[in-house]
Amino acid sequence: MILTDRELFLLIVCTVFYITLFILVIQNNRRKLQLLQSRLDNIHAMQKMAVMEPRKDVNTMWATPVYLRIKQYLSEGRSMAEGDWTELAEAVDSVYTGFSEKLYSLYRMSEQDFRVSLLIKIRLQPKDIATLTAHSKESIATTRSRLYQKVFGKKGSTKDWDDFILSI
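RESULT FIELD:
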């Protein structure tokens, strides 16, 4: 079978295109792996620091005015006010040193993702998190498993995300 000049040219162009595409896909995958490895290294460092840091008593968190207001909101079935979120983040950071910074260093979270993580950190149940954020329990579960997948690059359960949040 003899190829015409035009067919030969097209064959060469297609071959070069596919080889280039293959190389780009490999490079992209390597970058993703490096990013995931960097995140994992970051996570391991955070967890080591969390073990070594002296912690204030968790009861300190439960005695804060914002936590008491959260309990009141839950008993009334209300969601949290905007100002309460800032106060909660400050209270969590004062008990768990640098928690917000650690969280944002892993992944660019939405406000909702961050709020869910804050509420997990203070050991609230998913149904209570749903009430306080004015979302469904299913939405909260989806957020938790999605965050685990985004940060770790693999599927995980909602419990996996909760365990991670409690470990840092």
